[in-house]
Design goal:
A hairpin with a 2-residue loop joins β2 and β3. The chain is built from four helices and eight strands. The protein has three domains: about 1-35; about 40-120, Protocatechuate 3,4-Dioxygenase, subunit A (Sandwich); about 140-195, no CATH class. α2 packs antiparallel against α4 (about 175-185). The strands form two sheets. Strands 1, 4, 7 and 8 form a four-stranded mixed sheet that branches. The protein is an alpha/beta fold. It has helices at about 1-25, 140-150, 160, 175-185; strands spanning about 40-50, 60-65, 65-70, 80-85, 90-95, 105, 115, 115-120.
């Protein structure tokens, strides 16, 4: 029985030694090698609108390994982002500026990577029944329509889209009633197809 216990203990010690040598290579005398990333990569190009006009002041942002590098376009729409690590991975590159839809792409960046971005104009979000243009349909829209219809207040813009809460093609008292019913009585929300 003592031989059996000694054999089990000896086997356990050997297994522990091999595990330690495998997990911590320095104990076994092996040199652990690490790969240093070279930050020699760069991304450059132009940012234009859909008519090929350069856009100045666009932020081009490259995200990698929990950090980022960025640059703004000049008057010619040119940007040059530097100090990007070269590795076998993709980086998220984006171009953004207020008034335009953000464009992003995954790129494998090398010493001299080129990519041109084309930004599209950001279109305002039109919501049926949102007569005052604040982004939600609420009692403020009913008040706005009351002012427009009865007191000669400013018209909703575009009038037949955002003012027409019930989607009958007209802006009138029925739209006010529709909004009030929706807000206070749990009525149907305004149609989504009127602003398409």
């Amino acid at each position: 029985m003592i031989n059996k216990i000694n054999t089990k203990m000896f086997t356990t010690v050997i297994v522990i030694i091999f595990v330690i040598m495998w997990v911590i290579p320095g104990i076994s005398g092996e040199q652990k090698t690490t790969t240093m990333l070279q930050n020699d990569g760069n991304l450059s190009g132009y940012v234009t609108d859909t008519s090929s006009n350069p856009i100045e002041g666009v932020l081009v942002h490259v995200t990698f390994h929990g950090t980022f590098e960025e640059d703004y376009t000049d008057e010619n729409g040119y940007y040059h982002v530097t100090n990007i690590p070269i590795c076998y991975c993709y980086k998220n590159a984006s171009a953004s500026k207020q008034g335009y839809n953000t464009e992003w792409i995954l790129l494998s960046i090398t010493e001299d990577t080129k990519h041109n971005f084309t930004l599209t104009d950001e279109e305002p979000q039109l919501i049926c029944g949102d007569a005052n243009g604040d982004g939600v349909v609420n009692i403020g829209d009913a008040v706005y329509l009351i002012n427009y219809i009865f007191i000669i207040g400013p018209s909703p813009y575009p009038i037949t889209c955002v003012g027409d809460a019930n989607s009958d093609g007209e802006v009138n008292v029925a739209d006010i009633v529709y909004i009030v019913n929706y807000v206070f009585n749990g009525g149907s929300p305004p149609e989504t197809s009127c602003c398409i």
